[in-house]
Sequence to fold (860 residues):
Amino acid sequence: MSVTRKNFEAIFDRGYLPDYLFCDAYIGDGIYALGENWGLIIECDPIPYAGNMASEALESLFTATRTSDDWYMSLMMYASPNIKNIVDEFVAHKSSGTTNIDDDVIRELFRQRGKFYLSHTKKSLFSMFDSRIRNFRLFLSVIIPMHSRDVDDEISNIKKAKNEIFGVLEPAGFTPRVCGPETYIEVMREILNVETPDFTYNPLKSISAQIVSPETRLKILDTGDIDINGTPHRVFSIRDYPREIALFQFGELLGSFKENMKQIPVPFCVTLNMRLPDRLKMKDKCTAKAAFTTYQFDGNPAGKYIPALHKSYQQHQVAMELYDKGKMQTPLQLSLWVRGDNQSHVDYLGTQIRNMWQTKSFNIVRELDDASFPTFLSMLPLNYNKYFEKHLRRTEPLFSSNAANLAPVTSDWKGKGRPFMKFVSRRGQLINFDPFESDGNYNVCVVAESGKGKSFLTNEMVIACLAEGGKVFLVDVGRSYEKLCEEIGGEFIEFDPDAKNIVINPFSSAKIDIDGNLHPSEYELLIPLVGQMLGINLYSSNSHEQQTEDAKLAASLIEQAIYVAFKKHQNDTCWHEVINELFNLENERAKKIAITLHPYSKGGRYGRYVNGKDTFSYEKDFVVLEMDTLEQMEDLKGMFLMMMIYRISQDIFLDFERPKMVILEEAWDLMRQQLSAAFIEKGFRRFRKHNASAVVVTQSILDFFSSPVTQAIWQNCEWKLMLGQRPEAVEQAKQEKKLAIHDYFFDQLLSVHTVKGKYSEVMVYGSSGIVIARHIVDRYTYYLYTTNATDKKLIKQIRSQQNCSLRDAISFIIHQEENAHIDEQIQQRETIRNLLKGINKREAIKYLSEDEEEGEYERT
Fold:
């Protein structure tokens, strides 16, 4: 007997919906009591671009030996709009750091960002297409029949099964973890109440009774749609499956990796329900059916001309072959529900979903009134059991290999580590990017053509590090960061070659060992620094880099001279003393080196910049080092850059606690100087040990492949952030195998783009993940980062007129914008009303529909 709509409506009207939720109590370790069954819930990370490894792991899971027959297993992918905990953690984390610059401006930025993210869970980020922020969650639940009165023995067996499941899922990248009652109730309440009211888990009360809020009202409409607190839901099931589909292809049905219009931008859920029978029993049944079908087919001379009989014969022959290969048939149900803003919206979404699924040869059918609500309930974790299987009759017996490729386990990479920076994926997944979360180094390469959002992204990295209580050094050519530095109270250092008080002397801050000698670690950068002065590549004697015999001799002689000079003068050592010690070595090669270094002696043309007490100092936690004034002095620029990096490194190496970031903007110009590039590459290798990240910003991927040294810089950057690139540059990188990525991702990289004023896309690529992300900022961030002269002038005027802080000035502008927008919306509605009073109703309806597409009525 089927379960009808009226039955369910009557049940709910009497307040007994919890009777159709079977979870009684939490035992522990992810195990639940479900009346006559046991339950187990595991939350996993969705797999980005899931492929063969994931499908093989799932098939292994489905065919594993079990302690009893007829387990019920469900895989539920839920696009949750509930990101409050994620956002709260993000804002709290970014508000905890303390620096000696304007922390209030930075904290306000992340408060505004948090509000921005939360507001766009219910409305689109853009007017061009619907895109909302979600968190994709994956739950694996298992229902296991009770067979023994020995509860301890049963629980022990379930724990063993849980450990085996973890052993299968962990290597495939699912990151399984036990789902406790707080998480289970939170997700169930969110689905069945639409909102997520606060609750406190009560272990003395039935879990099912803690899920549905007393205020929740649910209606099953005549169309089969389910109305929960005024929000419509539409339920679908799959009736016919494609002959063949890969897990990666199936993942596209949860949202396209590439196309904006092929997304499901609202909350939705896809669940694969399965009964896992005993393999040998199923094989015996299949063998009997195959034998009977063969008898019918062989015994009927016209059998091959009867399509149904011929098809059945072929299917059973294939089935027997698959059983012989260790496969197993499992009855499965694949269903989906989607939540719309209103009835017309859910109609549109229903059409969109059917079109998407039909392109992959699925026959997806809308559930009608008798079955929509029970199907909806069957999709919930720990809910699909033998009663739903019997009454719904939605199962299709498919083999385990097919089932593995129909699992809803694919979504976008969420990132790892601390909430350092946030991006949004094309599907709306909130992504965490933390360069300091890496088993390798913390260095970053940023590549972006002009106008692709490079400056905004670099600004974001600066602010993100400062919000952690970190320290940022930014070397720039072109004054791009002068305004930001000024506005947040940083320190802007400009090098004027004509100034008389500039001295950069690395010996002034050099470390001294316990014997009073120069610390051995200092030579690692000092020797390459002298190499820059000489115009050759040099490395210290304990370096593993390959050098010519002449270079090794030169490095050894320079080390001797530095050692003796520092022994005599300690931190008062200058390059002049080092040159003198080279002369004193009474070695012809040493004397030639000393003569070559003459420009850096006290009488040389660069002597005044490098001899004497070091005056290169800074007090602030954000320091911009502007090289613009040295643009026409290539030799001096290279030397100054290396001196600065050396001095910055000395300070970085003194502090292990705070995160530090050294950013080289427009680094392509510096990397053309191979000696500078070699020095940079050598220095960057040491950063990880001192909680420091080096960020190299260039315009093209190909900049990193101009020489072995620049390629080494690329390889020593764990993270690659690639914004919009010229197609020919991407194609060249692909043909020459510059990037160790699959051809598919080259195609994805070609699709990375920027929409001015809306977002910049970036391919985030590291050893732990790859994703196309969008850097989307709120209005507060825009006004802080913008280099637009008109906007900057407006901020300056308001600060002057209002005598207020930068934070208050930006907040004032945003408030004015919001008021103006509301006034505009009111005027639009008034225009619509006036049009409706007249004869041109068609024009009014057109005007109204255009306005609705903007999705801005909520604010009016």
About this structure: The chain is about 40% helix and 15% strand.
